[in-house]
């Protein structure tokens, strides 16, 4: 992995791969650089870059609370990618539910393992919430909408709440108010097939 300082031209509107579903924090990072394109895994983001399906990709490398994202660190160390720039994105985790959901009547909460880790204190204060790991924060919000159970909540962004028609049951539930995730914006290295 090498680093360069040239940013893409806003007029070119490049396609930017991100891991997750609409409403994901990675989508917010991708939108700062072009047109977000969702992919299910970090490995698929890298594969899309190398196959030239997209011009750029964003990958989260670490969070101020939960630390490094090992899978991404490994991909950056082994794939022929060039880091174009980096970004610290503020992360505001919210507890999301159906319009009639309440914290008192909820029994389960879904989210990505990193988000669950970033909200440990909140979850410890509410031991009646059984946490379950899913592939993505926005995917957790989508599952809450699809399953249509008022006792099921998700930890995700306000953007995910708007996208999936959910209400914010509780806001700013991360362990620290300065919660942020470091993203790298990448492209395929020159000369890769």
Q: What is the helix tally?
A: 7
Class from helix and strand fractions: alpha/beta
Oligomer: single chain
Distance between the termini: 16 Å
How big is the Rg? 17 Å
Residue share in helices? 25-40%
User: Could you list the spans in which at least 5 consecutive residues all have pLDDT below 50?
Assistant: 1-9
**Largest sheet at a glance?**
7 strands, mixed
- Give, in order, the helices and strands: EEHEHEEHEEEHHEHEHEE
Strand percentage, roughly?
A: 25-35%
Task: Tell me the overall shape.
Answer: elongated
Number of strands: 12
Mean pLDDT: 93
How does this structure look, described?
The protein is 28% helix and 32% strand. A hairpin with a 3-residue loop joins β4 and β5 (67-68). It contains seven helices and twelve strands. It starts with a strand and ends in a 5-residue tail after the last strand. Strands 1, 2, 3, 4, 5, 6 and 12 form a seven-stranded mixed beta sheet that branches. Strands 9-8-10-7-11 form a five-stranded mixed beta sheet. With 193 residues, it is of the alpha/beta class.
């Amino acid at each position: 992995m090498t680093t360069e300082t040239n940013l893409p031209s806003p007029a070119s509107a490049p396609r930017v791969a991100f891991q997750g579903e609409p409403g994901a924090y990675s989508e917010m990072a991708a939108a700062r650089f072009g047109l977000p394109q969702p992919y299910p895994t970090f490995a698929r983001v890298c594969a899309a870059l190398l196959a030239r399906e997209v011009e750029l990709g964003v990958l989260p490398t670490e969070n101020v609370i939960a630390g490094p994202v090992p899978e991404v660190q490994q991909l950056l160390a082994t794939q022929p990618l060039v880091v174009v720039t980096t970004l610290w994105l503020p992360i505001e985790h919210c507890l999301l539910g159906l319009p009639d959901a309440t914290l008192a009547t909820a029994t389960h909460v879904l989210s990505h393992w990193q988000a669950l880790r970033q909200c440990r204190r909140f979850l410890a204060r509410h031991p009646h919430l059984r946490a379950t790991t899913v592939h993505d924060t926005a995917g957790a919000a989508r599952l809450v909408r699809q399953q249509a159970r008022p006792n099921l909540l998700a930890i995700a962004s306000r953007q995910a709440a708007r996208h999936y028609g959910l209400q914010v049951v509780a806001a700013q539930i991360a362990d620290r108010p300065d919660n942020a995730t470091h993203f790298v914006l990448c492209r395929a290295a020159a000369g890769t097939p």
